[in-house]
Amino acid sequence: MKPFVKWAGGKTRLLKEIERRLPADFDTWEDATYVEPFVGGGSVLFHMLEKHENISRAVINDINPVLMHSYHRIKQDPKSIMETLKVLKNEYRRLSEDKVREAFYYRVRDTFNDMQFEDEQKVAFFIFLNHTCFNGLYRENKSGNFNVPHGKYKSPAIYEEENIMALHEALQKVEIYCGDFDSIWSSLESNPTFIYVDPPYRPISKKVLMFTLYDKSGFSDSDQLRLKEICDIFGNRGCRIMLSNSDSYDGDISYFETLYNNGYHIDRIEVTRMINPYNSKNRKPKEVIITNYPIPNHINHINE
Ligand SMILES: C[S@@+](CC[C@H](N)C(=O)[O-])C[C@H]1O[C@@H](n2cnc3c(N)ncnc32)[C@H](O)[C@@H]1O
């Protein structure tokens, strides 16, 4: 299964590293609950649902309404989405001239921005725009209109029927929420629970400007503090928690090592980013993976 959208901060390339760092006995948990409060494109969600059959319930959330509405509609009625997607895809592919394709893209974008959520076709338009816009970004202007320019790809994949149907099946055990990460915790029950937390990246250091194009409100250090408090509370109730973020520093001080200094385990992995924030070939960016349980032994640490 593959995500139905490309998403900034998507974790497809880190799946192996995430999988290796799950609690060692995860597959022996009965009726496990999987929770993702910042689900984005869902690469980790769909991986977990595919690989771990002991997950009987999942709870997902994101602050982006059109994204979460799409999960909901794919869960309910994927066929009607694909009917519209097929028309859009065929029309787009039929247009060979760049200028004409571009004009078609902007017409679809305008129509999407005029649509209400009740409009059954909105999700299909969203998926089409996501695969034909620049870099699969999601960005809105001040009036809340999607404003990413055309991506000029020769033959973008857009969707595969088999994949959408597999996502539809997998979503049957998933509860879908839309809002701030704060709002979903009351839905957790007493089953063994694993929570994967992947909030927007904190800038690598205060001096380095990073691309953070998630949501109008941004994600500040006070949000990081709120999140940490919630992790403490749910960790104390027995949930196993894994968090990802950039390896962020304030001067020489590791932001996340300082914040998660009460019994959490911090691991670092090298990542390839499309935009290297250090602007240097010799210095590769790292991500931190923070867990509230010991990281399984078989992992070769690259901590400095
Ligand atoms: C790093 S991305 C998650 C990427 C995801 N793991 C994937 O593989 O696609 C962070 C997500 O957090 C969402 N977000 C930002 N602020 C939020 C908030 N306060 N509450 C919930 N979600 C939020 C963004 O919309 C974005 O989808």
What would a concise description of this structure say?
The chain has 304 residues and is an alpha/beta fold. The protein has helices at residues 15-20, 43-51, 65-76, 78-94, 98-114, 122-132, 161-170, 221-236, 255-259, and strands at residues 32-36, 55-62, 174-178, 193-197, 240-246, 249-250, 253-254, 265-270, 286-291.
Overview of the molecule:
The strands form 2 sheets. This protein has a 7-stranded mixed sheet with strand order 3-2-1-4-5-9-8, sandwiched between helices. Strand 4 (193-197), helix 8 and strand 5 form a beta-alpha-beta unit. The chain is built from 9 helices and 9 strands. The protein has 304 residues and is α/β, with parallel strands linked by helices. Bound molecules: S-adenosylmethionine (SAM). S-adenosylmethionine binds at residues 7, 9-11, 37-38, 40-41, 43-44, 61-64, 180-181, 198-200, 214-215, 219, 223.
* Strand order across the largest sheet: 3-2-1-4-5-9-8
State the CATH superfamily name of the largest domain.
Answer: Vaccinia Virus protein VP39
Structural class, by secondary structure, is alpha/beta
Strand content: 15-25%
Shape: globular
The span between the termini is 35 Å
Main β-sheet, in a few words? 7 strands, mixed
Return Rg in Å: 20 Å
User: Could you say how many structural domains there are in total?
Assistant: 2
CATH architecture of the largest domain, by name, is 3-Layer(aba) Sandwich
DSSP summary, beta strand count: 9
Order of helices and strands: HEHEHHHHHEEHEEEHEE
Mean pLDDT rating: 90
